[in-house]
Amino acid sequence: MTDSTPDSAASEYAVLRREGTSLVVERPAAGLPRVLHWGADLGALDPSACSELAVAISRQTAPGTLDAAWQLTILPQEADGWAGRPGALFARQGRPVFPRWSVEEFAADGATLTVRAADAAESLALTATIAILDGGVVTVRHELTNTGTDAVAVEWIEATLPAPKAVDHLTEFSGRWTREKAPHTGPMPRGAHVRQTRRGRSGHDAPHVLLASIDAPRDRSGEVWAVHLGWSADVTYRTDRMTESVAVLGAGEMLRPGEITLAAGQSYETPVCYFAWSDGGLDGISARFHRYLRARPQHPKSPRPLVLNTWEAVYFDHNPEFLLSLADTAAGVGIERFVLDDGWFMARRDDTKGLGDWVVDPAVWPDGLEPLAERVHERGMEFGLWFEPEMVNLDSDVARAHPDWLLHNPAHIEHPAELSWRTQFVLDLANPDAYAHVFGQMDELVTRLGIDFIKWDHNRDLVEAIHDGNYGVHEQTLAAYRLIAELKARHPGLEIESCSSGGARTDLGILQITDRVWASDSNDPVERQDIQRWTELLLPPELVGAHVGPSPAHSSGRFTDLSYRMATSLVGSSGFEWNIAECSEEELETIARFAALYKEVRHVLHGGTVVHGDVRDPGLRLHGFVAEDAAEAVYVIASIVTLEDSLPERARLHGLDPDRTYRVRVRKEIGDTQYGWHHPEWLSRGEVTLPGSVLGTVGLQLPPLWPAQAVVLHVTAV
Ligand code: GLA
Question: Which residue is catalytic, options 283, 521, 524, 561?
Answer without folding.
Answer: 521
